[in-house]
Amino acid sequence: MKKPIDVALIGGGIMSATLGTILKQLQPDWEIRIFERLDQVALESSNPWNNAGTGHSALCELNYTPERPDGTIDIASAVKVNEQFQVSRQFWAHLVDTGKLPEPSSFINATAHMSFVWGEDNVEYLRKRYDALKDHPLFAGLEFSEDAEVIRGWSPLLIPGRAKSQPIAATRIAAGTDVDFGALTRTLIRYLTDNGAEFTGHARVTGLKREKDNTWRVSWRDEVGQTPMQTHARFVFVGAGGYALGLLQKSGIKEIRGFGGFPVSGEFLRTDNPEVVARHVAKVYGKASVGSPPMSVPHLDLRVVDGNPSLMFGPYAGFSPKFLKSGSLLDLFASIRWHNLVPMVAAGASNLSLVKYLLSQLTASKNTKFDALREFVPSADPADWYRITAGQRVQVIKKDDKKGGVLQFGTEVVASADGSIAGLLGASPGASTAVPIMLGLLEKCFPDRIEGWKPALTAMVPSYGTLLSDDPKRADEVMTNTARSLQIAR
């Protein structure tokens, strides 16, 4: 048997690219191989047109600041997501400073983040959210206004054609960013291959089996020649998006028992009309419909892809049993096992509002969908907009002792007890928090090495092991240095 490699990364997305890049800093002598079933990297969830290009930092996403029954605003999730995004930004800044990433504008650009609502109740909610966040060190610079002229100055598209009597409000923070995770992924993978890692495209992984020596046999097929192949690895990371669930099930690790997945698809309206795009240099999020998943929060989103700005509005949710955009119609059914059947049924029964929401989206007419855009942009012209299909998201379903099963809208790292294999399930906030997720994975899978790695980890992420929100002065220093390196607003 050929000598096993040190690390096998399954999937050519932002998660594998991030983990591989971190490990290359920590253990430059380790042999790393990346397996991707398509011919190129970043074609699924990491592609910016598949709804992974926002840069989630909770500056404007209202689903992270729910209103409690007593009317107060819970900011815990917003602070957590912002902390995580700051970790990612620090790591990218380190890579720029050390010459491992090119010009920052190739993947990250300053873009104001806004929240925009209408109706008296929503205006009151946004005002309370502003009051709860404005003095927090991670949300410094947050502005609030109910003045149509002020809001028009922030984003000219939002006001023309709107009734003057309609109550409206917005918050804005200039320090937001737009991240092209497709470009970032490609750059990181290129860095890895330039420094000894091997990339194998058209490689469909078909099986994972633990050997007697505790290495893993990765069975894969060359999709071009249909040739079955095998590679042995000491550590395996399954970062294959929706296919991670099935591959972890094939590994046989007990930790995956009880996990299922619920796929959600979607589409956006997009415009590349430079006259329209020039009037909306921001990301604007509204409030989600009751029962809708976090990924379906309506937003009018500036995207800068390969240096070209466009606007996207949506998403409009849909349903497909595929677990990847290029997946199979049998994916959902193939994921069902005896140990996850009860959690999946229980999760479905307790999320009927989500089912109702999906049905309403599936049956909505084109005019109804465009009316949703006109709630944001009253003057929108259908001639400027066209439909694009978004990527697939597979929400985590897991066992719950009380309910039988719950539908989870975050991400979940599933690892074997010995740490020799791990995978990532779930979606939002996804790519924006890739770095802290992978750092957590290292702590989980390499507990015997993490202490020795700490100096290097702290050099890459100055706030590693601490919370910026606990020290406002330190937060300002770190965020200022990061912004300077990435050439974006503080």
Automatic annotation (TrEMBL):
<comment type="similarity">
    <text>Belongs to the MQO family.</text>
</comment>
<dbReference type="GO" id="GO:0006099">
    <property type="term" value="P:tricarboxylic acid cycle"/>
</dbReference>
<dbReference type="GO" id="GO:0008924">
    <property type="term" value="F:L-malate dehydrogenase (quinone) activity"/>
</dbReference>
<keyword id="KW-0285">Flavoprotein</keyword>
<dbReference type="Pfam" id="PF06039">
    <property type="entry name" value="Mqo"/>
</dbReference>
<keyword id="KW-0274">FAD</keyword>
<protein>
    <recommendedName>
        <fullName>Probable malate:quinone oxidoreductase</fullName>
        <ecNumber>1.1.5.4</ecNumber>
    </recommendedName>
</protein>
<dbReference type="InterPro" id="IPR036188">
    <property type="entry name" value="FAD/NAD-bd_sf"/>
</dbReference>
<keyword id="KW-0816">Tricarboxylic acid cycle</keyword>
<keyword id="KW-0560">Oxidoreductase</keyword>
<dbReference type="GO" id="GO:0047545">
    <property type="term" value="F:(S)-2-hydroxyglutarate dehydrogenase activity"/>
</dbReference>
<comment type="pathway">
    <text>Carbohydrate metabolism; tricarboxylic acid cycle; oxaloacetate from (S)-malate (quinone route): step 1/1.</text>
</comment>
<dbReference type="InterPro" id="IPR006231">
    <property type="entry name" value="MQO"/>
</dbReference>
